[in-house]
Amino acid sequence: MSNRVLRLAGYGLLLVAGLLAPFAVYPVFLMNALCFALFACAFNLLLGYTGLLSFGHAAFFGTAAYITGYAAKVMGLSTGLAILAGVAASLLLGVVFGGLSIRRQGIYFSMITLALAQLVFFVYLQAPFTGGEDGLQAIPRGKLLWVISLEKDLTLYYVVFAIFLLGFLLIYRTIHSPFGQVLKAIRENEARAISLGYDVNKYKLMAFVLSAGLAGLAGSTNAIVFSFVTLTDVDWHTSGDVVLMTLLGGMGSIFGPVVGAFSIVTLESRLSDKVGSLVTVIIGAIFVICVLLFRRGIVGEIQGLYRRVVGNRA
Amino acid sequence: MKRTVICGLAAAALLLAATSVWAQAKGKISGGVVKIGVLDDMSGLYSDIGGQGDVVAAQMAVDEMGGKVLGAPIQVVSADHQNKPDVGAQKAREWFDGDVDIIVGTVNSGVSIAVSKVANEKHRLFINSGAGSTRLTNEDCNPYTIHYEYDTYSTGTTTAKPIVASGGKTWFFLTADYAFGKSLQADTSKFVEAAGGKVLGSVLHPLSASDFSSFLLQAQASGAQVIGLANAGGDTINSVKAASEFGITKKQKLAALLIFISDVHSLGLNAAQGLYAATGFYWDHDNDTRKWSKAFAAKMGGKMPTMVNAGTYSSTLHYLKAIQAAGTDDPDAVVKKLKEMTLNDATVKGGKIRADGRMVHEFYLYQVKSPSESKGPWDYYKLVSTIPGDQAFQPLSLSRCPLIKK
Amino acid sequence: MSEIFGVPIAALFGQLVLGLVNGCFYAMLSLGLAIIFGMLNIINFAHGAFYMMGAVFTWFLLNTWNIGWWWSLLLAPLAVGIFGIFVERVFLKRLYKVDPLYGLLLTFGLALVIEGLFRYKYGVSGLPYGIPEVFQGALNLGFMFLPKYRGIVVLATLVVCFTTWFVIERTQLGAYLRAGTENPPLVQAFGINVPVMITLTYAIGVALAGLAGVLAAPTLQVSPLMGSNLIIVVFAVVVIGGMGSILGSILTGLGLGLIEGLTKVFYSQASNTVVFMIMALVLLVRPAGLFGREK
């Protein structure tokens, strides 16, 4: 009973912190961090819970961003509809990529996702609607539900926070559902899951598409926040960033990616002014250290520490 | 008991947050400091053209004003936009949401266009000395953006003029695939066609391409008399190198439509000799420019300033003078003052800022010396002609800027 | 001038030759990757960084100690190989017991660190490196000027690639290497020092990348970013050729270079994407790659 109350209190505190944060911290920075947190959580659905390392997730993030931007700016759709359009696009792309890559396992799977994402990158580089190197600029923030104007940073922050919570809760429910259990089974021992009669490829594909769609939601929201989509959003470095966020935060828990995302976004914004191009070196070094010594990630290590101190009470 | 603890914790959190709201001074125009932001490519393809040099140049302008204006201290900050429009726009937004009053420098047209939009949104000044695209004073013009020093119209047409006059009638363009390259190609093509020439074709290359050989082969296959290089910085350097490697320069002429003295320095006179260079500033032009440039070089390890560095210095200086003349740092008042002033300093004589934000001044056509003609390092150019401002830049009558009432 | 499909012959052959030269770099790099993957089951994301190090080291040798290109052919791969030994011993050894995905992530992190450091030190504008005197100038082939140096690149690549393939597939040393990774304890029982062999294999794989860097220095831009520009295409080449197949990666690398060149002539916008499109197609039809064996 006490454990449960403590957990609820923890969630409550986080919620309050989230609601009040924009008054203490630059809201645009927070919104960026939230979008990447959602992106990382979506990615972790695939990595931590299904055991599939996709190295091309930026393709979904960026595709949704471009489609949303185009829908809002050129087609004049209202913001909500534009975001939905973006998510639909990333879901579709998820089906295509998933179909091509699911047949392979392990490293092969990762390589294929990487190469497919590069294909998408070069298509966007050439396509006139993306603006190429110049990017898709001046995307209107518009109005939510045709009434609430999103021009002010504060209003937009709450909308973004709500979107993040929605995505997060969806992932939470998925993980704790029977579907989620099957995913974990596949991660643990795919052969066993097959022998138990589960159509493993179908489950993997569904997880892939869901992950792609949520990554797309993050991308669409990010596009509205910055009024801007560029090739960086589909670049493989962004795919690498989200892997790092998940690894650093901890892939074994649902909060891990959130912690990782906030850490990396903060690191990148604080450091880039001071050390310029050394940021890549630091990010790379964190990668190396995490893989060698720190595989459970921040949240994982904290959980481990807690268990050792408090003991494993039932 | 547990429930009270939790409620207490929640309340404490609320209180903490509430007090932080009061404690935090929301950033507005800084009462008491004039902050100048130099936003540039500090480490990439264009870092030699603007980069750290722009920071030094801006600081020189600040020092010339005695470090203070209207009693308030002046501060120079800088950031690297990495040639990414989103990074540049985000930085501009963060700066303008805070207490930076003006952004100067900024090589890279894609970034500059993005920043000019942020400047317009936040009603703060952006005086750009580094970008080329004429869109800044046409389709994308706004009251808070001033395009200083040069643009693709002035360099493109000035470079093309002698080439077309001496018989280079058919052209093929090798163009950097973004706002700047396309602008340079468009402005130069219009001039070539108006002068009776013909554009046979073009090929787009990615920014910072590593290998130009396949693009140059296409240029060669076109049979055009002139290959127009609608790119800049490292891209121009590599295009010129590859062209000589493939023997292209034996039959076709190269036109570097935008080339900076830092590029010539990298290429070396052997490779660059004979190229035309259109510029708004050259360090060895007269006594004033020599004096200022030597002071600049002393701070930059012997490196002479490019016209972008000169523009950053000049624009910062006149911004500060405009604040003094207007008696306030309110952006609207300062812009009004700037458009009234005639600009004179070590690097510019008789410059004026037009209603569309275009800064107009004397422009020069130089030609790169051969190694035997040069008397020492950085002695690279010989003067061919001087063009008055109203002829070098796009006439106001042709402007596509919505601010200009026709 | 005669034309094929509306394109002048000169342009067509010119691009094909350039494509072949590019293909040589693809082949050499994917060869190294295939060796490392086939033998060690590691995807070496840092391969591009080793290639870049080879090129920068070549420039460094000339600039600092006036050591020319010929010596660099020997010294640079050696230096890169030694660094590779260090990487394998200190970092990769710890990951053999864990999921191979961690190896991928580690090498990815290493690539970022190496490239970031070089970028910090040397900027991105590119370091100038001239073509060695002997090879300067171009051969007038009639339909185009072929810079002599690019011809040498093709020759050198073919020699190196086929020698390597021969050593691995047809000699006893190669047999030991292959056996050592299939069944380490058994081979170790025969008295062969397997861990040393594994280290050597990694070193040779990255030395090949370094050698490619030396060849690239005079003709492509020597810049800290040169590796990351190439590496993903090379991955696609390896996937198409078949992840463990050495011959597959050589042939695929050369072939894809040619196809890219062709694409530039007829439909240049697609030249970036054609490799990936082919990869998607191959995966649909032959998931193991063209020459691959299911592992």
Q: Record the strand order, biggest sheet of chain A.
A: 1-2
β-strand number of chain A: 2
**Multimeric state:** heterotrimer
Strand content of chain B: 15-25%
**Over all CA atoms, what is the radius of gyration of chain B?**
23 Å
Order of secondary-structure elements of chain B: HEHEEHEHEEHEHEHEHEHHEHHHEEEEEH
Count all strands of chain B and give the number.
Answer: 16
Quick one: overall form of chain B?
globular
Number of domains of chain B: 2
Described by strand count, sense and barrel closure, the largest sheet of chain A is: 2 strands, antiparallel
Assign the CATH architecture of the largest domain in chain B: 3-Layer(aba) Sandwich
What would you call the structural class of chain B?
Answer: alpha/beta
Count of helices of chain B? 14
CATH level 1 name of the largest domain in chain B: Alpha Beta
The largest interface is: A-C, 41 and 41 residues
Q: Mean pLDDT of chain B, rounded to whole units? A: 85
Strand content of chain A: under 5%
Description:
The complex is a heterotrimer of chains A (314), B (406) and C (295). With 314 residues, chain A is mostly helical. Chain A has a domain at 25-233. Chain A is built from 13 helices and 2 strands; from the N terminus they run αααααββαααααααα. The model of chain A has no long low-confidence stretch (mean pLDDT 87). In chain B, the strands form 4 sheets. In chain B, strands 2-3-1-4-5-6 form a 6-stranded mixed beta sheet, with helices on both faces. With 406 residues, chain B is α/β, with parallel strands linked by helices. Chain B is 43% helix and 19% strand. Residues 1-30 of chain B have low confidence and may be disordered. Chain C has a single domain, classed as ABC transporter involved in vitamin B12 uptake, BtuC (Orthogonal Bundle). Helices cover 71% and strands 3% of the residues of chain C. Chain C has helices spanning 9-40, 47-65, 69-90, 100-122, 148-170, 172-182, 184-189, 194-216, 226-241, 246-266, 274-285, and strands spanning 3-4, 7-8, 138-140, 145-147. In chain C, the strands form 2 sheets. In chain C, strands 1-2 form a two-stranded antiparallel ribbon. In chain C, strands 3-4 form a two-stranded antiparallel ribbon. In chain C, helix 1 packs across helix 9 (226-241) and helix 9 (226-241) crosses helix 10. The longest helix of chain C is centred in the first third of the chain and has 32 residues, at 9-40. Chain C starts with a strand and ends in a 10-residue tail after the last helix. The model of chain C has no long low-confidence stretch (mean pLDDT 84). The interface between A and C is large, with 41 and 41 residues.
